[in-house]
Design a protein that fits this description.
Elements: H1 2-15, H2 26-41, E1 44-55, H3 60-74, E2 80-85, E3 88-96, H4 99-109, E4 117-124
Antiparallel strand pairs: 1-3, 1-4, 2-3
């Protein structure tokens, strides 16, 4: 008896049609549109970076930034990145498009920076920033 009433109630609910209206702040919709536009124009490329250090503990942040400065002074044309993933500060270098180039550079620096490893990354292609609309306080007037 109970099963029959559930199936009747279910078919009754499916036969009712209506319109749902969601009321909200227009600025939220505009913000979502900007986010979608930004992501559609964001282009990424698979690549490789070399991790030269993984630091944790007291003063690890300062050590990471000192290492970044030291590396940058030795290799000014190579990008250096500090990534914080709790509890580690990782220092990574390079924007290599293929693994072979990353390994060749790693062999070049491994005596100075022991324990280096090559890791896969996805990083953005340099964007044409003229199409990107920044979020500012002026946007609140929309």
């Amino acid at each position: 008896m109970l099963i029959a009433s559930i199936s009747v109630g279910s078919s009754y609910a499916q036969s009712r049609k209506g319109k749902i209206e969601i009321t909200g702040d227009v600025r939220v919709s505009e913000l979502v549109k900007k986010h979608i536009d930004f992501n559609e124009h964001l282009r990424t490329v698979p690549g490789f970076r070399i991790q030269i250090a993984s630091l944790s503990g007291p003063n690890s942040r300062n050590q990471a930034f000192e290492l970044k400065q030291r590396f940058k002074s030795e290799y000014p044309d190579v990008e250096v990145y500090i990534i914080f993933t709790e509890p580690n500060f990782r220092v990574k270098v390079g924007d290599f498009t293929n693994k072979l180039d990353a390994f060749v550079f790693m062999q070049h620096i491994k005596d100075t920076y022991p324990g280096t490893i090559v890791g896969e990354n996805v990083y953005p292609i340099h964007l044409d920033m003229s199409n990107v609309i920044p979020e500012t306080d002026a946007d609140s007037d929309l």
